[in-house]
Amino acid sequence: MMTPNLPKTASVLRINILLFEAFSNMVLACLLEPLRVVRDEHGTAITWTILTPHDGPVRSSSGLSLAPDCQLSQAGACDLLIVIGGDRFRQDSQHSATRRALMVARRAKTVIAADTGTWLLASAGYLEGRQATLHWQLLEEFAERFPKVNRVAAPFAGDGKWLTCGSAAGAMELVLQEIAQRFGAAARFDAASMFLNAPRLARTPDNGLGGLPSHPNPRVRKALDIMAATVENPRTLPEIATGAGLTLRTMARLFAADLGLSPGKCYQHMRLARARELMLQQGMSAADAAPRCGFSCVASLKRALSRSSKENAGSGGANLPLGPSYHR
User: Fold this and answer.
1) Quick one: CA dihedral 65, 71, 76, 82, positive or negative?
2) What is the pTM of this model?
3) Exposed, middle or buried by CB within 10 Å (0-12, 13-18, 19+), for 67?
4) Which architecture characterizes domain 200-314 according to CATH?
5) 105-114 pLDDT, tens per residue?
6) Residue ranges of the domains in the chain?
């Protein structure tokens, strides 16, 4: 069997993840899994290290135990620090061990505080005079407890290197924005498609593939459904627009505004994502994968993969909206 020859990007992202007792598995997954998809699908050098405030295992709110990869004193500087607080945040905020653990934030280029992690950072003085948010149920109490922090009622907020979010939904939105900024719109689209969309099977309700479940425009969902259903036998963009009840110009405008990609690029990334899945996950050769993803030959597939890799490596991305938020 021929080994898949997938191009690699030059991007590197070193992540430290600081977990506190009774952290949310859902929040952790929403922050980490999209990054894992970018690593696996785009060959990006993304690494992460699990840390805990006491250098021992911590349990999630559902009882799952995670052990640290190394001691806090051995943790290196990172590009991104993720701090996920747990249900015991009020007690944790009073402990000197928490303040010592949070000192790793000083050596991080960017910090994401998720769920009650915002409370912990605020208790250590890192967020004074800055905008921040956390889970909506705690916003009022947070504002009373930390009057010097500019509380924001939003899924996520950013102020300099300090990024904060509350629910799992806000965490997903925030990390997708980070992916877009660091690795480009194509990487963000692939990550969002993995977790926010599912191909529509025959005779199932019209949930739509690429429509991002909360997307307000059913015609955009329809266009993405048509693309997803015709990966193996691609249609022309005019055919897709007509099937979705759109003009070419309107379809291009909606895709640019809502997805950060042109319809053509979006369609191609769907096909390339399928090719990567066949080659990396199923061990299929490029020659066998090409016709199943709408490419005329293996050479055209490899050229498309190479172009996509170069675009991802060189793109800074943009802030791409997900539409209305939802709560965990």
Assistant:
1) positive
2) 0.67
3) exposed
4) Orthogonal Bundle (1.10)
5) 999 999 999 9
6) 12-182, 200-314
